[in-house]
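Entry for the shared binder. Reason: the reviewer on the internal report wants the predicted structure included alongside the sequence.
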Amino acid sequence: MANDSNNNLNKKVIKRRKISYQKVFSFISAGFIIGCCIFYGTRFLTLYLDNKKEQIKLEDTLSQAIKENNNLKEINGDYYFQNDVDNNYVMYSNILWRIIKVNNDNTIKLISNDVITYLSYGQNDYENSYMNTWLNKTDDDNTGILENLLNTPYNYLTNDSICKDNISDTKHITCDKISDTDLIGTLSVFDYVNAGGKDSYLNINKYYYLSTLDSNNNIWYVNDNGNVSSADGSDIYGIRPTITLKSNSKSLSGNGTANNPYIIDENYLFGSYVKLGDDIWRVYDIDEDNIKLSLNDYLKEDGEDFLYKYSTNGYYHNDTKKGSLAYYLNNTYLNSLSYKNSIINIKWSNGIYGSSNDYNYKDTLNTKVDTKVTVLSIGNVILNGELSDYYLSTGISESSSLVYTVKDNGTLYGKSSTSEARVVPTISIDKNVLTKGNGTINSPYEME
């Protein structure tokens, strides 16, 4: 009997132990399942919310708005504005640009609405051309003229892609080789043709250089009829830079029309308008303390364009020589200004530009003269492309009496210094004296 009792007791103990293992296993299994649900459920929710945020962010960008609200042409994954459109204007750094395309990564390629300087191409190699070094900074002086003046470009821009294919004719255009080492570029034949060529908004009836070379290493350019051709690059044509906005770029305001462009930034000094007395000027250069201004119109006399000869012999700016433009500007004209005491005497470029210095704009800018009032030089940014037939302060050579003037077709013309031409004065003032306005044409900066 005792043995039977012990056997029954052992069976009960064993039975109880089996029930305890099952409960523990069930508890662990349930906990594991619940943990998995929480972990993967939380992960799914997080990914969903992040994706939702990304969609909202993408829909809020300028690139997405452009693609959704315009009939763009898709070519190799990029979306082009084509032909004669009127709703692709952008204002950045107080320069008016046109949208060429939205790239497949949602970056946006722009080109300046007008030429902003005039140069010879230089070497038949885009990376080392004078055009490229004028646009982009290197370790040399007088490089990156435009890059140095743009509004915090690395906040707004990504490197601009340049087609490097050599193009023999416009019927066989490719873009297989691409360079994206520079922040600022120029238009390629590939993009010009894909945007509609001479029938597009890119035809501004002016000469300007493209970045593309032909099979003989000549440079393609657009002429004043909108046709493309190639030459050795020694001619002086307009430069229209291209830039690429980052994919997350947003528009502060505007609808893309010329009168209401997409606004990327505001209240920037370069390119802004300044009102002094009754005159409207434009900021075209900035240094640490001062700004350089060019009149936003021709000099007038009794409501008519004022014409004057440059000098009796050559380009040199001599403000002590009676009868010269330099003397007139620093005496008769300066004394007529109510704000003459705010104008600063500084060094201005007054050099030559031609075969004798290999069309090197850097040398042109390095030749200086001290004065208060002068005119623009080759190598300067020129912001008002509507003005023409006015003198620059640059001569063709030391021995020549020819001085450059700006033509209305995007080229420069050597004119005898004894001939009369229009005048667009330049001055410099302390930038800290501008305390009113926001720099727009409707609310220019002013002094108190």
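Summary line for the report: The CA atoms of residues 135 and 146 lie 5 Å apart.
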